[in-house]
Structures are given as C-alpha cells and as structure tokens.
Amino acid sequence: MTAPKYTAREASGLWVFLEQQDGVLEPVSIELLVKARQLADQSHQAVTAVVTGYEIGHLAAPATAFGADEVLLAEHRLLRHYTTAPYTKVVTQIIQDRKPDILLLGATANGRDLAGRLAVRLRTGLTADCTDLSLDEDGLLVGQVPGFGRGILAGILCPQHRPQM
Questions:
Q1: Three-class SS string for the chain?
Q2: Are 67 and 128 in contact (CB under 8 A)?
Q3: Strands 102-104 and 14-18
Q4: Inter-residue contact 130 to 115 (CB < 8 Å)
Q5: Exposed, middle or buried by CB within 10 Å (0-12, 13-18, 19+), for 20?
Q6: Does the N terminus or the C terminus of the chain have fewer Cβ atoms within 10 A?
Q7: Peptide bond preceding 146 in cis form (omega within 30 of 0)
C-alpha cells in the first residue's frame, strides 16, 4: 500500500458520515452515531458528524441529540442527491483538512460507494460488513466481520493508515 495521506500521530476524533435522503437521516446513520458516542466516551474523543446535501441545516439538531459533539455541514445544490463524484470530492477535502482518526459510514448502497472511493483517495484501509465495532487496548478500531462461511468472527485493524474506516 502506498504511503498514507496523513499519519496516526496527526489524526484525532471519531467521525460519522450521516447519510440523508430528502432531508431525512437514514436509520443506519443514527445507529452509527450511537455506536460512535459509546466508542468516543471509552476513548475520550469527540464525535463529529458529517452531513452533505442541500438545505440540510435542520439535521444538525438530531445529529447532536444522538451523540455528535460537532456537526459539519457541506451544502450545495449539486449535493442535493447522492452522486459519486461530488460527494467524494467534498468529503475527501474535509477529511484531508481535518484529519479524523476514525470514520464510520453505513453499509447502504451509497455508503459503500462513497467508502470505497474515500479509502482509495485517502490511501487507507476499509473494513466492510462489520457486525460490531470496538476499540483495542491501543485505541485502534476493531471491525468484527464474519469469516469463512460465517463460522468465525475476524477482527480487522488498520494500525498505520488514517482514517480507520
């Protein structure tokens, strides 16, 4: 793998990409915020919610209610509906500017599309289809995934590249 865009030493904070459709948060986004809040409380980190779209300012309040310490809104008419290129460009830029340690995205069609593209652009790993998330003793994100016919669970780590996704 190529050199990371930024290092673990430069990274801080636990981020959640909040997916929305027509100004309504997707249920998976709320689930991820609740999980992020648990992990952040354990590791003494802040939770940042990232919301992209158009006319979405009203989503800051529910994001805060479900655990976000900070909400970043990226609003533009071209972001009204999910399209790969604009969303990838905007979210990549925000991540490169602010350097989160962890980024969580939902396993929806749009979330999977965006996550894969972000991982490539940010030169980091991506653990897909997690059934649980936790932090190890060093504060690394552990993504639990079913392996080999679903008979075992494997813990996936991303120790050197950021963000951990």
A1: CCCCCCCCCCCCCEEEEECEECCEECHHHHHHHHHHHHHHHHHCCCEEEEEEECCCHHHHHHHHHCCCCEEEEEECHHHCCCCHHHHHHHHHHHHHHHCCCEEECCCCHHHHHHHHHHHHHHCCCCCCCCCEEEECCCCCEEEEEEECCCCEEEEECCCCCCCEC
A2: no
A3: parallel
A4: no
A5: middle
A6: N
A7: no
Residues 6+ apart with CB under 8 A from 29: 16, 17, 18, 19, 20, 106
- This prediction has a pTM of 0.93
Residue with tokens 């669970």: 153
Question: C-alpha 31: how far from its chain's center?
Answer: 12
Phi/psi at 120 (5° precision): -65, -50
Residue with tokens 């509906």: 81
pLDDT digits (tens, 9 = 90+) for 47-104: 999 999 999 999 999 999 999 999 999 999 999 999 999 999 999 999 999 999 999 9
Rounded Cα distance between 80 and 40, Å, is 30
